[in-house]
Amino acid sequence: MEERPRPVLRASRAALALAGLGVVTYLSVSYVTGQAPACGSVVAGCEQVTTSAYARFLGAPVATLGLAIFALLLLGSLAALAYPAQSAPVSVALTIASGGGVLFSLYLTAVELFILHAICIWCVTSALLVTGIFALSLAEAVASPRSPTAARADSATGD
């Protein structure tokens, strides 16, 4: 029987992915239309960050890459909610995908801080959201019981 916190964890992960999808959709629309994202009065650097040479990676707009990763994370999160019995491998896949997102976000944040000397609050928000998804996915992947096949293989080898 499934523990109660897991559906909450999965729903929280889906909510973070949906929020991330909203953030990168806004950034993508801003990029495509050539409009600077609204940054507010607290942090002014969004335009400098989103119009720099670093706003593209391997020829693709970084915001578009964000759309792809958050859409993937949302679909995976919804799949884990819909099919809880098969959620263990999905959680591992989401941990790997979001871990890649965290590493890429660290790279982009380093570029913001040490090369551009500007901060985009939308980019920071995206980084925090993917980090939250990573933490929730890792927590579930670590807590998930091993599959019966893996357990039988371990018992046959004496592990």
Short key terms for the protein model shown above:
2 strands; de novo design (two linked rop proteins); 3% strand; elongated; 159 residues; mainly alpha
Task: Give a structural overview.
With 159 residues, the chain is mostly helical. The protein contains six helices and two strands; from the N terminus they run H-H-E-E-H-H-H-H. Strand 1 (56-57) and strand 2 form a beta hairpin. Helix 3 runs antiparallel to helix 4. Residues 147-154 have low confidence and may be disordered.
Task: Please outline what is shown here.
The relative contact order is 0.17. A two-stranded antiparallel sheet has the order 1-2.
User: Span between N and C termini?
Assistant: 25 Å
Globular, elongated, flat, extended or rod-shaped: what is the shape?
Answer: elongated
Estimate percent helicity: over 70%
CATH superfamily: VKOR domain
CATH topology: de novo design (two linked rop proteins)
Overall CATH architecture: Up-down Bundle
**Neighbour order of strands in the largest sheet:** 1-2
* Strands, total number: 2
Mean pLDDT: 87
How many helices? The count is 6
Total count of domains? 1
Class by alpha and beta content: mainly alpha
User: Roughly what fraction of the amino acids lie in strands?
Assistant: under 5%
Uncertain stretches: 147-154
Name the CATH class.
Mainly Alpha
How do the helices and strands follow one another from N- to C-terminus?
HHEEHHHH
Main beta sheet? 2 strands, antiparallel
Q: What would you report as the Rg, rounded to the nearest angstrom? A: 18 Å
